[in-house]
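Hello,

Our lab assistant flagged a job as stuck in the queue for most of the afternoon. It eventually completed. Since we weren't sure the result was trustworthy after the delay, we are filing this so someone can double-check. Below is the sequence as submitted and the structure that was eventually returned. Let us know if re-running is recommended.
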Amino acid sequence: MSKPALLVIDDEKEVLNALNRALRKEFELFLFSDPIAALEFYRDKPTPLVLSDMRMPTMDGATLLGHISEINPSSKRFLLTGHADINLTVAAVNEGKISHYFAKPWDNVELIAELKDAFTVYLSELSTKKLLRVNKEKNAKLSLINSSMELEINKSKKKLDLISTKEAKSFARLKKTFNTFVGIYANSIALHNEEYSQHNYRIASHARYIAELQGCDKLTSYQVYIAGLLYEAGKIALPQKLLRGPYDQLNHQEQSLFDSFYQTGADLLSDVDELSFVVEIIKHIPERYDGSGLPEHLNADDIPLGSRILALVTHFDNLVIGRQQLVPVSVTEAKERLAKMAGSRFDPKLLSIYLDMLSAVPESNAASNLEFPIDLMQLCEGLILTQDIVNSSSSVLLTKGTVIEQSHIDKLIEISGERDEQFSVFIQNRV
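-- returned structure --
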């Protein structure tokens, strides 16, 4: 594999030579002492990585990198800066002109590592753009299907509802095709994420149920459900290594790339007019109730209802299945963590409804068709396992579909105590 191309600009010859010695084994270097000449070079050969000194006589580094970003917004731009220039450097970071800065004297190991990580992100973003193009083509086909559905509806109206049996069957097939496509898309997302606990179906069902409790009509509730199934569509554009470990174990740069999946997912689905409401829900899931979230700093009821619902439902499920941190969190602890974020991250009214809903399991039959995670100590006779119970060695202790008996509970408690293990238990209500 060829070395990543890196443009380096510093008006001090000694510094340029030192950077050359430190970086030449890992990168294809293009060295300039004159920022204006470097900029002219960049117009003809836009390298993915640029490293510039801050203080130079003809043009300061922040200004230079601003011009670089206009030529190639995808580039990863870095500054070398002294203590006296720190305020200007921070301003450049906030304005998006640079990706990172290094204080002089720099650490070679840190410098190389950051540049390599940035190049990995650069390649991933290129892959994302390619995937966007491919998925837009797929979405265009989906839009064609839905346009056909609309035509069928118009034909029905023109005939004053005297639609023939043949046409009715055709429309039903088109509607089924749409639902099938959504299901295939949802399953593809799960396969890419290497996620086998039915996370997206579970959170979609929970979200729809909460929407129904809020008095939403069937169409709105269905749109919330579809948003839950497809909210991770943008993860298809992420490298799988970012998805295999818990979020808290990622470094800052990896977390930033990971967090972009909501917007990427919205972009992937945006060409399908019939999913416009779903796109808005997915786009605004990262918003916070207090207005400090992304992408638009919306607050309270300005955030779409579906986004507010999915924000808390997905966070809870990610905690209990071990996506957020190295060790999965118990259902009890996950609920406590959510409660602490009422009014800041989550809508307090919706959160109260969801916590009540979770606390009623397994006693209540109100949501008996839903799958719920519970702690081992909540397990009781008559509950039905919706997933295998496995230990830390991936050995199956009880299989999906088992109707729980007291002997099962006693054995699981015994194993848990002996091995100090916490089991993930997913159930439906009693038979």
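-- support follow-up --
The delay was a queue issue, not a problem with the job. The result is valid. The domain at 368-431 is CATH 3.90.105 (Molybdopterin biosynthesis moea protein, domain 2). The longest strand covers residues 76-81.
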